[in-house]
Amino acid sequence: MGFKKFSNLIMIEQTLFALPFAYIGILFADSPKNKSISIWIFATIALISARTAGMSFNRVIDANIDAKNPRTKDRTIPKGEATKTEVWLIGILSSLVLILSSYLLNSLCFYLSFAAVFLLFTYSYFKRFSSSSHFYLGLVEAAAPIGGYLAVTGKFSLVPFILGSAILLWIAGLDIVYALLDKDFDRKENLHSLPSSYGENKALKISTVCYILSIGSMIAAGLITGKSIPYWIAIACITFVFTYQQIIARSKDLEPALNKFFKINMYVSPFLLIGTFIDVIF
């Protein structure tokens, strides 16, 4: 499999989008260790391998569903550009890399890496029986800032879980809007999502609540750790983005509106990372 097909398989741009999650966790850790190059390197490897494993498992597990859905029928496996066996191997090898890189960080990260692999593997099955799959995806993504923090400290505390809740709620709110595109298909195939189960209006209201609570978690994390002006400017920018997203998600012409929705979403994690970085380093 060539690099282009591999990058399409794992949606490499989504990996770049997720990297700041782990970095934010590292920066929030109140320890000189958060300036250790080795922690940044192994955390990066762990995040990339986790994303690769998760996307690979998802593509194999959902291959038959993807083939039926007009929106996803051109993905790598339905198009015949990769076999299920190849993608299974990528997922398994990536999981092993995740476990190894976690071991090289500290023992707590090593033990938790097995839970991370479990989450990555089981996510794709959730929508087959529960419309809470949006929140399960949020939980998977929340592991990044929690893991980044624990990579530095090696012990539990309140802060990483507040950060994790911010990411969980943001991603859940985002995924609820994303599921609007497939609500009719999901109903037909008996797949569960908030839009397909409860309708567009209720789903959008829940998405809005998720975004509000996510901002609340970011504010709480900043207050607890005594963040300064750069961080609060970032939160203000994110609040603007979230507000704009919720407005355009209610557009009548849904598909082009959601294209705009996801483009502007790409600014959220850089805003949060840059604001946190400037606050912590300077």
CATH superfamily: UbiA prenyltransferase
Counting H and I runs of at least 4 residues, what is the number of helices? 14
How much of the sequence is in beta strands? under 5%
Order of helices and strands: HHHHHHHHHHHHHH
Q: What does this 3D model show about the protein?
A:
With 282 residues, the chain is mainly alpha-helical. The protein has one domain: UbiA prenyltransferase (Tetracycline Repressor, domain 2, Orthogonal Bundle). α3 packs parallel to α6, α6 packs antiparallel against α7 and α12 packs antiparallel against α14. It is globular and about 50 Å long. The chain starts with a helix and ends with a helix.
How are the SSEs ordered, and which strands pair?
Blueprint: H1 3-10, H2 12-28, H3 37-61, H4 63-68, H5 84-105, H6 107-126, H7 133-153, H8 158-178, H9 183-189, H10 194-198, H11 200-224, H12 229-248, H13 254-265, H14 268-281
Task: For the structure shown, list the relevant keywords.
Tetracycline Repressor, domain 2; mainly alpha; 282 residues; single chain
Concise overview:
The chain has 282 residues and is mainly alpha-helical.
